[in-house]
Design goal:
With 204 residues, this protein is of the alpha/beta class. Helix content is 30%, strand content 24%. It contains six helices and seven strands; from the N terminus they run H-H-E-E-H-E-E-H-E-H-H-E-E. Strand 4, helix 4 (117-130) and strand 5 (131-142) form a beta-alpha-beta unit. The longest helix has 14 residues, at 117-130. The two termini are 29 Å apart.
């Protein structure tokens, strides 16, 4: 995993500051409504969940499992959400899946741009094994596109993740595992100038 965590970027390693910053720049409820088709009863796997802030906007009654390698993020998620979810401080792999082949949704928000191509391909393969036949993987990452705001490009260049790609780069990785997918570039997901690529990969 390639990321920078020193200097100013270290501030976002603090889960309280990270969650505050996230609330300032993104409307999680709008993001979930537009891009995360979750329903009560769904089993959801969140890879790289951080403090699991997105859970506050998911329907009550989902079976949420969040994985993150940061003990501080996971501790905050446990304190905030208690038994609304399961939060595990580890990098998820096939052995750690509670119900392989039974997840309705796999989420990976802001994860792929921290991974090199080999690690990213492994994430797509893991998601496919985790999902039900009609399940979906939703990924959301910064991307570089022609003509994007100079401010957005600068902010993205300062991201902790060191593998920001253009849309083709992300799509090539996804298509090596999923044949049925949609891609959407959004310049308005955040309240600051920024560009994201959202992939909706369907299993089957």
């Amino acid at each position: 995993m390639a990321q920078i965590t020193d200097g100013l970027r270290a501030i976002l390693s603090n889960p309280t500051i990270y969650s505050w910053f996230r609330r300032m720049v993104i409307d999680d409820a709008d993001y979930v409504r537009r891009h995360v088709p979750a329903r009560a009863g769904d089993r959801i796997l969140d890879i790289g969940c951080g403090p699991a802030d997105v859970l506050a906007s998911l329907p009550h009654g989902v079976h949420y499992e969040g994985f993150d390698s940061s003990p501080r993020y996971i501790e905050r998620a446990r304190r905030r959400f208690g038994d609304r979810g399961t939060f595990r401080c580890e990098r998820v792999d096939e052995a750690s899946l509670e119900a392989p082949g039974e997840y309705d949704l796999v989420l990976a928000y802001g994860v792929l741009h921290h991974l090199d191509d080999g690690e990213a391909s492994a994430l797509f393969r893991l998601a496919k094994r985790a999902l039900k036949p009609a399940g979906r993987l939703i990924t959301t990452d910064p991307c570089l596109v022609p003509g994007q705001s100079a401010i957005a490009r600068f902010v993205i260049s300062r991201d902790r993740g060191q593998n920001v790609r253009d849309p083709v780069g992300y799509l090539n990785l996804a298509r090596s595992v999923f044949s049925n997918l949609d891609a959407q570039v959004r310049h308005d997901l955040l309240r600051i100038p920024y560009t994201h690529l959202i992939l909706d990969c369907r299993n089957g």
